[in-house]
Amino acid sequence: MFRKTIICLSLTISCFTQLLAQNTRDLKKELEGLKSIQDTVVLNQKLSALATGSEEDLMLLTQYGLEKGWSRSQWDDLAAKRMPTEQFAFNKAQEKFFAERDLNKKLSILASIKKQFPNQKYGYNYALLAGDYARAGNFNQAMAYLEKTKDQDRVMAWSQLALVNDPKILKLVVLRVDQTLSQKKLPQEERIVLLNMKRYLLEQKQDYKSAAIIAKKILDLTPNPTQNEIDHYSILLSKSGNYRAAFPALEKMINKETEDEEIKSEYKRAYQFMYPNRDVKAHLDSIESSRVKQYEAKYKNYNGENLIKEKAPEFELLDANGNTVSWKDFKDKIMVIDFWATWCMPCKAALPGMQLLVDQYKNDPEVKFLFIHTKEITGESFSKVRDQSQAYFKAHDFTLPLYIDLKDKDTKKNKVADCFKVSGIPHKVIIDRNGFIRLNSVGFAGSTPDLVAEMTAVIEKVKKLN
Fold first, then answer.
1. Measured between alpha carbons, how far is 452 from 259 in angstroms, rounded to an integer?
2. Which CATH superfamily is domain 310-463 in?
């Protein structure tokens, strides 16, 4: 399993979820515990222990690395320490196969790898090829490669087929899924995967009533369903108009301070159904106001106990117009820097709160915000990164000052993130008017009111420093 984790990190989330369901250890709680550790020495000790621990330890470490946006070198270091030399060499050889987009070239690369490493297993490769052939319109070859897979590789193969856009191929996929589900001796794990495919495809067609029925079957088949699976079923109930059944679960989700727009939207609909004579906006505003007051009280007596004092590095980067700016342009100002990326879910979850902060300080000439897009993984050109970022901002009505930290062509490192020692994102830095870093904050706990209250308290404290 660890081999597959390093080869394709997209499997990690599903594997991690299965471990959550199958083991007595509360890995989700352990993950939150890791993320909450502020002492760097203590954190590094725990991460080192996980790197040499059990398979569960490795899955926990991998999930932590994913959420923190670890660099490629960190994954390679972890793999090199845990894998035999031949296994590591095999995985490095596989990278060329995974990077290739041309199907014929991909087949040629695989043939070469199989010749060099005849004793390795290639089910994962076959799973990817099943998807490649389906996207190329060759359904029979896609099925031929799917039949070469089993267990987790079969799961991946089916998942690849669910993402096909060609309506003709997709119709054949659905027929094959139904045929396979009719088999009485089908392994339960594969049955759940296929039902999830049906649910997903029904949702794409906006047939939420049928999707909810399938989701219930999945829950009944799953010994220990995750909270996300249970919550999603409730969302489907709401989308299909069964507001009365969905409302209790949606209310619990709202009370957990969710930032999920889909949950908020369905809760509004369900609330209006349950209480047609009440003002849902006033109700939600009341909940939000209560949370704001709660966190303002939490930081009311903030004394700067988590502040540091380190000389900030000198840096240059590009603004949204492609102009070079440097630390000198913000001299004598308090800088609030947010290292983020469009692929980073925690980064994006924190942006609504950061927008509130920007609005709060928009008339304060002493405080300057820099939202630095960094560690891009889908492209390295300025225009592509800039356009992706601006499109995301526009879609969510964000008016955040955007800056771009491109990878160095020679070192392949993001220069600004590197000089600030950013290993994971989101990573927030506050620099005082004298050029000293006063706060380094990594990650997002998930509460917008908490984020706004804490950052406000820190900024106001820093403003009072000499």
1. 14
2. Glutaredoxin (3.40.30.10)
